[in-house]
């Protein structure tokens, strides 16, 4: 059922984005599409965060659906691209999806493993096609769809361990924020290369740094990213 819910959610996001662009509607309609897609994941896919484990279990109770919805919509917009972009920018979510797949293999989570591998292969195909065709067709609809997939995979793993929130934060949100920070100082390829290497570095750290230390990194980065939302330039929520 979760696979079907994910597919319905992606279709909902694509249709909403295309209609918004075609009729030049307010971006609020795109957000509504994302909320609807997230509700499908929660209601149909039965995927939600009902508790958080921080040494002890903290039940979210009535905050379960709002928290899950906020998380899904927030990470769906982590790659907030408004216009066509070089396909090489997809290296960032590619690294993140590979990290998800590796973590799912270690933990033993078939949904995340299967979806992560399929999404990684799809992104690789798009990058190769874009490279050989010379077309810069990577835009908001594609990146929003990828962000939605990553958000769903994040929620799926967080049910196992809250520390896995490290993956979307350190291997996508941070590198993407870095990309926006340095893109005016370097060429586009150089900026993407630096950001991708940063994502790879943090991906490796996840499998060598003890989880108790990892948690402090997650909390610290979360605070930094929340503060950065005050600037539109670095905003992803």
What does this structure look like?
With 237 residues, this protein is mainly α. 70% of the residues lie in helices and 3% in strands. The chain has nine helices and two strands, in the order H-H-E-E-H-H-H-H-H-H-H. It has helices at 2-22, 27-43, 64-76, 91-107, 110-133, 140-158, 166-182, 188-206, 211-228; strands at residues 51-53, 57-59. A two-stranded antiparallel sheet has the order 1-2. A hairpin with a 3-residue loop joins strand 1 (51-53) and strand 2. Helix 4 runs parallel beside helix 8. The protein is globular and about 50 Å long. The model has no long low-confidence stretch (mean pLDDT 83).
The counted number of beta strands is: 2
- Give the averaged pLDDT, no decimals: 83
Measured between the Cα atoms of the first and last residue, the distance is 28 Å
| Approximate strand percentage | under 5%
Question: Can you give me a brief rundown of this structure?
Answer:
This protein has helices spanning 2-22, 27-43, 64-76, 91-107, 110-133, 140-158, 166-182, 188-206, 211-228, and strands at residues 51-53, 57-59. The chain has 237 residues and is an all-alpha fold.
